[in-house]
Amino acid sequence: MKKLKFIALGAASLALLSACDKNGDNPAAPTAESAKAAGEDTIAKGLPGGSKFAEAAKSVGLDATLGGPGPYTVLVPTDAAFDKLPAGALDTLMKPESRADLTGVLSYHILPGTMLAEDIGKAIDAGGGKTEIATMGGGTLTATKEGDKIVLTDAAGTKAIVTTADSKRSNGVVHEIDSVLMPSK
Amino acid sequence: MNKILLAAGAAALAISGPALAGGQQGGGHGGGHGGGGQGKAKVERGGGGPKAAVQRQGGGNDRAQMKAERGNRGQGQVAKIDRGPPRADKVDRGGGKVDRGDRKVDVVDRAVVRVRDGGAPRVAVANYYGFDGGGCPPGLAKKGNGCLPPGQAKKLVGSALAPAYLGAMLDGPYRDWYRDDDRYFYRMGDGYIYRVDRGSNLISALFPYYDRDYSYYPVGMMYPSDFNYYNVPYQYRTYYPDGGDYLYRYGNGAIYSLDPQTQAVQSIVALLAGDLGVGQRLPATYGVYNVPLQYRAQYYDTPDNWYRYNDGYIYRVDPTTQLITAVINALV
C-alpha cells in the first residue's frame, strides 16, 4: 500500500514538474509560448493572494488573461472597494450562474495596452479636463483629475479614485482604485 | 448590473431569502449562445503565426472616406445585455509600404465608413459590394451568431462559397486577424466570416462576423458547435495553438481555452477589443497613449504621428485627420 502511495505521489510530482516546466513559473498561462511572452512578474501574480479581485478573476477564468501576454492596464478595486458594494452584490456575482455577468464587470476594469497615470493625465489635459477610455468589456470610462489624483467615472456616475498608480508588471500595469466600477444598465 | 445591485440591496434590507437576484440566470449574457457544442473536438491548426508579419493587401491609393462616430461601444452590462448601437462597415482599401529606419514594414491603408442603425448588429456592405454581405433578416443575428438559426450554419461547411462573396474581403480588425494564406482564404457575407480551402474551394469553417459583442462565453459553458473550428486571430496563434492540453477558440471579444473532451470553456486566455483597424478614424476613446513599455522608445507620439496599441498590434495614427494609417508592428 505504501508503495502504491509513493508511486502515486511520484506520478503527481512528475505531472506537476511537467506543468511547471511547460509554463515556467506562470501556471495561469496555458502554454509555454504564452507564459514566456507574459514574463515573470505578471499582473495575475502581482494580485494579493486571497484578495476579492483576484478571487473574482479566478472564478471566471480571467486569471489566465491576467497571466497571459497582454499587455493590459488593470484597474484593481481594493477589498474595501468591494465592501462598499450593496450587501450581497458580490456574493450574487460570485455564484456560478452569474459568471457571465461577473466577467463583464471585471473586463470593464481592464483597458487595452499599457496606460500609465501620466499618459491618462496628459490625455485629460489635452481633452480640456476629461478623456474617455475604452475598456476591454466594451463600455467606456471617463477619466478626470481631482488634484493630483486620476478619477475614473463609470456609466452610472460612480467615481473611483486611483489610490496607487503605476504598479508595472511584465504584461501591463495595475492601478489600484477605491471603488468598483460597473458597466451600464 | 444596477438591477443586480438593487436586487442585492433589497435582499439585504428585506432579508427575504434567495428569491431576488441571486437566483437569476445570467440574463442575456451567454445564454443565447449555447447551442450545444457536442461531438468530438475538431483539432485544427491555422497557418501558424509568424510574428510581426504585416501583409500587404491590394494596391491603389488611400481613399479615406470617414464617418467618425464611435462614442461608447456596446456597453457591457450585467443582468441583461444590450450591445448598444450596432456597427456597420463600408470598406475601401488601398495599400502601401513604409520604410522605418532599418526595417521595412508593409502597411495596409484602407478606409471604413461606420454606420449605425437601430436594428440588430449587422454589417452593411451592400452598397459597396452590391449585395447584402453582412446584414441579416429581422429576428436573426440577435446574438451575433450570424444570419442562420442555430444548427443551420454548420451545414454551410463543406459547401461552395457563394460566388457573390468571393470579392467580399474582410474589413476592420478582421483583416489583420484573419489573413489569406496558401491554404485558406477568408471572405464575409450573410453575417459570417468564411474560411475557404484553396484546394477544394469549399467552406472549411465559418464563424459570426459580428461577434465582438462582449457577452463573453462564461467558464463552464460549451462553445457553440456551429462555430467550433480553430479561429484564433492570426497574431495569437503562436500562443494558443490546438493540439495541446486545450483547444482554443475566439468568440465575442475573447479567446477561450476549451476542454478537448467536453468543449466547455475552461478559461479566458485573452480579451480582444477589436476597436482599431487601418483606414478607420481613431475612436475618441483612444486618446490615451497606451503603447507597451518596451516599445515606447521606438513608438511615441509626435506632432506627425501618434501610436496606439490594440489586440497585439501597434497602429500609427495621423494626429490631424485622426485616421489610422498603418499597422506598424505585431507584438504577440
UniProtKB/TrEMBL annotation, chain A:
<keyword id="KW-0732">Signal</keyword>
<protein>
    <submittedName>
        <fullName>Fasciclin domain-containing protein</fullName>
    </submittedName>
</protein>
<dbReference type="InterPro" id="IPR000782">
    <property type="entry name" value="FAS1_domain"/>
</dbReference>
<dbReference type="InterPro" id="IPR050904">
    <property type="entry name" value="Adhesion/Biosynth-related"/>
</dbReference>
<dbReference type="InterPro" id="IPR036378">
    <property type="entry name" value="FAS1_dom_sf"/>
</dbReference>
<feature type="domain" description="FAS1">
    <location>
        <begin position="40"/>
        <end position="181"/>
    </location>
</feature>
<feature type="signal peptide">
    <location>
        <begin position="1"/>
        <end position="21"/>
    </location>
</feature>
<dbReference type="Pfam" id="PF02469">
    <property type="entry name" value="Fasciclin"/>
</dbReference>
<dbReference type="GO" id="GO:0005615">
    <property type="term" value="C:extracellular space"/>
</dbReference>
From TrEMBL, chain B:
<feature type="compositionally biased region" description="Gly residues">
    <location>
        <begin position="23"/>
        <end position="39"/>
    </location>
</feature>
<feature type="compositionally biased region" description="Basic and acidic residues">
    <location>
        <begin position="80"/>
        <end position="102"/>
    </location>
</feature>
<keyword id="KW-0732">Signal</keyword>
<protein>
    <recommendedName>
        <fullName>RcnB family protein</fullName>
    </recommendedName>
</protein>
<feature type="signal peptide">
    <location>
        <begin position="1"/>
        <end position="21"/>
    </location>
</feature>
<feature type="region of interest" description="Disordered">
    <location>
        <begin position="22"/>
        <end position="102"/>
    </location>
</feature>
